[in-house]
Design goal:
Chain lengths: 380, 294
């Protein structure tokens, strides 16, 4: 038995764990374009996908990668891509298409310093608001953040499950530190992993209405070639998928695609509370910074300070309920980020309890240390 | 002929909402759509197995009207979506219909790479020398000196030859036709669909509303008649002098080559990778047992 357990514990870097998570989730198509610090994901999948009968392709750019991912998903295959800031910019056009045509897919953005070509390849969290609002127009989207190698595995599975269940693109924000850190992780057996697949129509093809509303707000999805011939477009469309400018149909469409995410808030919004029960002061952090924050909180506890950490796994939709609870409980919140304060804006937006918000921003291409956060915890 | 037209109307068009179409009276797009449907009807392909994709623009609206699996993608990206579809489900017949701006300006990179990659797809490019839907701006195929809403002083750039570009980029099958030569068009579309590998059909078409009007090329009838007068079959053109070819353009098959198709080659990759993985797994198993015994 011991031997079996030892075999399961493996040394992986974050990017490798994302690959393991994607394959465990049933991903069988990947299209991408080389970019540091995400390239390991491509390289590994180019080996692993064909072993499982899946397909890897390196496209001519990230626009094409995103297009191919959508195409493969429409054909019924769980699909993903991985990139970093500059590539993520190029993907925005087709991410919007996936939102409007409701195509499940997963996009990994291993963040590096930006803007533009920026700071390759130092860690950053500069793409947080872009992940939410990068593509034009009002659109719903799910954004998850990973802070450890084991997160990379489990959050990637969650990303696929959410994308399939809600028929939406899901963005995973990693960063250079998480991507290249190696940690020993115990991966669960395939039987222990709960997988969700998109629901296919079971009505005869002539009854199928591809974008009809139902109690979930998520229409059943037929794969291309399954006999349910229908039209798919990036134009705002009616229940049958045909373009419409009828104001009632347009409004109904928007309300449904936003509503389907709202209906799933409870399941979609994930946060982890560390030492929060009696906390008087707390840190909100995500990504690699959450690791530093946890260390800082433990050190502060050792000094007798009632500190806690609220780690955000889901960044968008913003986990308002959970954050609000602790803003009411504590007198101060420290928000360390490797950007100019992109998530602290969200926290300020909902801060009706008037909890004091202390921002700590670092944009010099280095990870925020536990000491920097501890300094705030001991002085505020 | 009429009977066939009636079958095609009933069998292949979507009648539940989508007519009348958006195209102007006399537009060449309808002729291309007719040739495509007659070609597919002749090949007796199942509608369930055909995916028709498009980009943005007048050509982009074509799939909306046709009862296949249809996807109206983003501007210039039809071939990228098509690539994903074909690789994920190789048994589908995937056809992309695009315009000249769609395929060779915003989608130019995807176009040459799809040709180089040689995936089993068919691209139909309706070349009307302008951006019709947005009001007649110059496109990559607007002739030198022509007027458009963004080149009122005469166009200072040179035009792409789309079919020649496709040949150079490595497409397996390349042909050019016109909306005048509708029967010929149907034949080359059929050949393109039947070709293993990336195939391209460039169709010279009229936009008399945006391009013709501004360049004194006449209405739909005059423009389409000019294709009759100026198009020369490739074989015949080879025997003509440069003087005789002045102001003419060639139609017919520019390339028809057999070479490995990447979407088929990838099946070999899968087989090899699987074999390799099984070998490693069985080795691991033997080693694991040994260690346990020790």
């Amino acid at each position: 038995m011991v031997i079996v357990e030892q075999q399961k514990r493996v040394l992986l870097q974050g990017n490798e764990a994302i690959v393991a998570g994607a394959l465990a989730a049933g991903c069988r198509f990947f299209a991408g374009y080389p970019i540091t610090p995400a390239s390991e994901i491509s390289e590994l999948l180019s080996v692993k996908l064909p072993e499982l009968g899946g397909t890897f392709i390196q496209m001519e750019d990230e626009i094409a990668s995103m297009g191919a991912v959508i195409g493969a998903s429409l054909a019924g295959t769980k699909s993903m891509t991985a990139t970093s800031g500059p590539g993520f910019s190029l993907m925005q056009e087709n991410i919007g298409y996936a939102c409007v045509a409701e195509v499940p897919c997963v996009i990994v953005n291993v963040m590096r310093g930006g803007p533009s070509t920026g700071l390759p390849t130092s860690p950053s969290q500069g793409d947080v608001q872009m992940a939410r609002w990068g593509t034009h127009g009002d659109h719903p989207i799910i954004v998850l953040a990973v802070s450890s190698v084991s997160d990379c595995f489990s959050v990637t599975i969650k990303a696929f499950n959410l994308s399939e269940k809600y028929r939406t693109p899901v963005i995973i924000l990693s960063d250079e530190v998480v991507a290249h850190t190696r940690e020993a992780v115990a991966l669960p057996d395939a039987e222990q992993i709960r997988l969700i697949d998109r629901i296919k129509p079971d009505v005869p093809p002539e009854w199928y209405t591809p974008y009809a509303d139902n109690n979930r707000g998520v229409p059943d999805m037929a794969a291309l070639g399954d006999g349910y011939r229908h039209h798919i477009t990036g134009l705002i469309h009616d229940d049958r998928g045909y373009p419409t400018q009828n104001s009632q149909e347009v409004e109904k469409f928007h309300k449904r695609i936003h509503g389907k995410i709202s209906k799933g808030f409870q399941e979609i919004m994930v946060t982890k509370a560390h030492l929060m029960e009696d906390a008087e002061i707390f840190v909100i952090a995500y990504g690699s910074v959450a690791r530093s924050a946890l260390k800082a909180v433990r050190d502060a506890r050792a000094e007798g300070i009632k500190a806690g950490l609220l780690q955000l796994i889901t960044l968008f939709p913003f986990p308002r309920k959970s954050v609000d609870t602790y803003l009411r409980q504590c007198r101060v919140v420290i928000v360390p980020e490797m950007n100019m304060g992109q998530m602290s804006r969200e926290i300020s937006r909902i801060n009706q309890a008037n909890c004091r918000i202390v921002k700590h921003n670092r944009i010099d291409g280095h990870l925020i240390n536990p000491e920097e956060i501890l300094r705030h915890l001991t002085t505020v | 002929m009429l009977e066939r037209a009636e079958i095609i109307r009933k069998e292949y068009l979507r009648h539940d909402k989508k007519f009348p179409h958006v195209w102007c009276p006399g537009c060449g797009n309808g002729i291309v759509m007719g040739a495509l449907l007659r070609g597919i009807h002749g090949l007796q392909l199942s509608k369930d197995d055909i995916v028709l994709t498009s980009g943005i623009g007048c050509s982009g609206r074509m799939p909306t009207y046709i009862d296949f699996n249809t996807i109206h993608t983003t501007h210039g990206r039809a071939l990228t979506f098509s690539t994903g579809i074909k690789l994920a489900k190789p048994e589908l017949t995937v056809i992309a219909v695009m315009g000249d701006g769609d395929a060779t300006a915003i989608g130019g990179n995807h176009f040459i790479h799809a040709a180089r990659r040689n995936i089993n797809l068919t691209a139909i490019i309706i070349n009307n020398s302008t951006y019709g839907m947005t009001g007649g701006q110059y496109s990559p195929t607007t002739p030198f000196g022509s007027k458009s809403t963004t080149s009122v002083y005469g166009h200072v750039e040179h035009a792409f030859s789309i079919a020649e570009l496709a040949v150079t980029a490595g497409a397996s099958f390349v042909a050019r036709g016109t909306v005048y030569h509708a029967v010929h068009l149907e034949e080359i579309i059929q050949q393109a669909i039947m070709t293993r590998g990336f195939s391209v059909v460039e169709v010279i078409s009229n936009c008399h509303v945006q391009h013709g009007r501004r360049n004194k090329l006449g209405g739909a009838v005059e423009m389409i008649t000019s294709y009759k007068e100026n198009a020369v079959m490739i074989g015949k053109a080879a025997k003509m002098s440069p003087e005789e070819l002045e102001g003419k353009f060639t139609i017919g098959i520019l390339a028809n080559v057999k070479k490995p198709v990447s979407s088929e080659q990838y099946q070999r990759v899968i087989a090899e990778a699987r074999q390799n993985a099984e070998k490693i797994a069985s080795e691991k198993e033997t080693n694991g047992v040994k260690r346990y015994e020790e």
